[in-house]
Specification:
The chain is an all-alpha fold. The protein has a domain of 60 residues.
């Protein structure tokens, strides 16, 4: 099965949401109510933010992530995307 990837430069809202949701999943592993509330909040916030703002504020994160991907011998600069993550959400 081929993994689906997200380009942070083409879809910054979805990329930011996936990145922050990954942080939340790692941080709140034992507290499901808090984790679920934060995941929903992050999803809504990231969808509503202007893509240019994300690129301006998080360009360092994007660049660092792309460097890590390049060092891992990957050809693409994309974080892994959960296939169901953005089905009902427009950018």
């Amino acid at each position: 099965m081929m993994a689906k990837y997200l380009d942070p430069k083409e879809q910054p809202n979805k990329w930011l949401s996936a990145t922050l949701k990954g942080f939340i999943n790692e941080t709140y592993a034992g507290n499901e109510k808090t984790k679920d509330a934060l995941l929903i909040a992050v999803q809504h916030i990231c969808v509503g933010v202007e893509p240019g703002f994300i690129e301006d504020i998080f360009s360092e994160w994007i660049d660092q992530y792309c460097e890590l991907i390049d060092k891992s011998n990957q050809n693409n600069c994309y974080p892994l995307q959960d296939p169901g993550d953005f089905e009902d959400t427009a950018e």
